[in-house]
Amino acid sequence: MSPRAAWRLEAAGFGPAHDYAAGKTDWIAADLPFQGTARLAGLLTRRGAATVAEGTPAGEALRLRDAQGFGPVLVLNQAGVVMGAAYRNALGKDTTVGRDHKHICLAARTRRGRLVGGRADMACWYRDGRWFGADAAAGSPA
Amino acid sequence: VEDYEWAHLPGAVSLPLKEPNSRAGQLDRSRPVIVYCHDSLET
Known about the structure:
The structure holds 2 protein chains of 2 kinds. By secondary structure, chain A is an alpha+beta fold. Helix content of chain A is 25%, strand content 23%. Chain A has helices at 2-11, 23-29, 41-44, 58-68, 88-91; strands at residues 17-20, 51-53, 56-57, 73-76, 82-86, 96-97, 109-111, 114-116, 123-125, 131-134. Chain A has a 3-stranded mixed β-sheet with strand order 2-4-5. In chain A, strands 3-6 form a two-stranded antiparallel ribbon. A two-stranded antiparallel ribbon of chain A has the order 7-8. Chain B is globular, with a radius of gyration of 11 Å. Chain B starts with a helix and ends in a 7-residue tail after the last strand. Chain B has one helix spanning 2-6; one strand at 33-36. The A-B interface holds A 1-6, 8-9, 12-28, 32-38, 40, 112-113 and B 3-12, 15, 17, 20-21, 24, 27, 29, 32-43.
């Protein structure tokens, strides 16, 4: 509806009126500043979590996770889409990590930029599957 | 209004489509105007 609003404003003497067609969620997804009461997953997560490709040996995943010092290791496919996540206490038990990893714990999704579900202490990703952060908030597994 | 209170770009003015001109007076006519909705699905 923003094109219609832009047209109306121009008709009222304001101008030129530009339409930001991608909308507010595009702005927020880019981590740009905003005002309001929103409690976004991105505010609760830390960027820079360890990531590995599917099939990575658990020992290597554990080394990368410990180098970061927090959160799970996120398992990404070739397109950068989150396929799974493994916490530290699970990495010693498995030979590789992947989408079928039995300790997959992806609890927090974003829908229209908002938290869905009760937990924000694990891994978060965009609607297209690209990850943007993981967290070791109080109460989350090490 | 609910979406505006939830989050808006810094300095943005809420202009409900039902009454687009009622708050337009808050806008500075000397500056460009950028209009946006919540997301692309609402445009």
